[in-house]
Amino acid sequence: MPGDLNRPATTLRPGTDADAHAYIRLIGDAWAEFPGIIFDVAAELPELHALASYFQRLEGALWLAEDARGQAVGMVATRPLREDGAWEIGRMYVARSARGTGLAQTLLRTAEAHARAAGAARMVLWTDTRFEAAHAFYEKAGYVRQGAIRILDDLSKSLEFRYTKPSRGLVVEMLDAAAAASAERRLAEILVACVAAGASVSYLHPLSREKSRGFWKRVSTDVAQGHRVLLAAWADGALAGTVQLDLGTPENQPHRAEVAKLLVDPAFRRRGVGEALMRRAEQAALRLGRSLLTLDTRADDLAEPLYRRLGWQEGGRIPGYALDETGQARDTLFFYRTPG
With contact defined as beta carbons under 8 Å apart, do 115 and 77 qualify? Predict the structure, then answer.
């Protein structure tokens, strides 16, 4: 596995019941980083003594990562939930010495690939509300928060967030306020990448991550207030694109919505992501009673042919409407469409 040349190489293998001491140490060390978390194997985690058998009974799988000295430095497991084709990621821990090496990504990708090969349509995981670094990691991997916080009747009085994402194919979903807030990191990356690739989305290259994240925080607030619909697209488990419906139209235009910020990560272009997002935006508009959609884009922008192919009608052109990163004034086109 790639990493620091001065760091021992890491290998990944199926976990066994004989690795119980390694599981207990990895989990115990991780929990010890947070005051108030009680780690009592006998009382609450007896399955750690035979964890491979535990996941085998659940028709799941377990992996252990070891460094060149044979020291356990990470673990992860997955199992089917038998609801909506979902598989759960669990027991995901990385030793402090191995963090920042890419091991966590390798562990997660390994578990996800196993689940996907077994037919998983969706991935699910639960993470303690105190594990903020874990939240950031899962969010960058395309997971979003879903549902209410889970209250555990354990010694630590734990509260947990539920994270989820589609695991295969091209899937577009509407994000609620919690999901929108948890998607901010990944959507900020997509916006930065699109601006760098020349997309016409109101910002100029170079766009800082801080400014991009600030934009998405405002979007999350609008979603929470019901002023905006946020759609996200996943391609084989990767959050690859997004589009919005701005519902904040004037009082005399309650039938209209504006399509905004169609963004597809450049790494996922030419895979139908943009078209899927636009079609779902139309469906969402119809459900909300919006019978007229409008949008604007820079003339000759990459998205212009898509809009025309999907039946959007050009309503006009304003010369020199916006500047590009070179300071040149560029024309903007205005389009409209009746959804359905």
Answer: no
